[in-house]
């Protein structure tokens, strides 16, 4: 699991932009998060269901997936498990974003392969700090090396 930073890191020097995939069946929530992350300088794509998420992830090759749990037809737990089974996406950080914060759901997301479990509404300062830390890690990947 990723640590949740407790201090504001946004004033730190910029790192390389991330490729971020936002998945939420609530289109307004997805677009709000999309725009917020895009304002941080990251390359963002959004979709609204699990099937589209799998296809878009395979094509876009995100660094981070911000994934809603409670979606119809294919929930976020199943999407995460399927993403984890895709060899090209082994490095992806998958962050659960859900209204469910109980211990049972946190255990389910951990077992499914999520890296972090955030409860909605997500504090945007926490999101900004988390993405900044992930940008630092992305800059160390071979495809980003100078």
TrEMBL record:
<dbReference type="InterPro" id="IPR011006">
    <property type="entry name" value="CheY-like_superfamily"/>
</dbReference>
<dbReference type="InterPro" id="IPR050595">
    <property type="entry name" value="Bact_response_regulator"/>
</dbReference>
<keyword id="KW-0597">Phosphoprotein</keyword>
<feature type="domain" description="Response regulatory">
    <location>
        <begin position="19"/>
        <end position="135"/>
    </location>
</feature>
<dbReference type="InterPro" id="IPR001789">
    <property type="entry name" value="Sig_transdc_resp-reg_receiver"/>
</dbReference>
<protein>
    <recommendedName>
        <fullName>Response regulatory domain-containing protein</fullName>
    </recommendedName>
</protein>
<feature type="modified residue" description="4-aspartylphosphate">
    <location>
        <position position="68"/>
    </location>
</feature>
<dbReference type="GO" id="GO:0000160">
    <property type="term" value="P:phosphorelay signal transduction system"/>
</dbReference>
<dbReference type="Pfam" id="PF00072">
    <property type="entry name" value="Response_reg"/>
</dbReference>
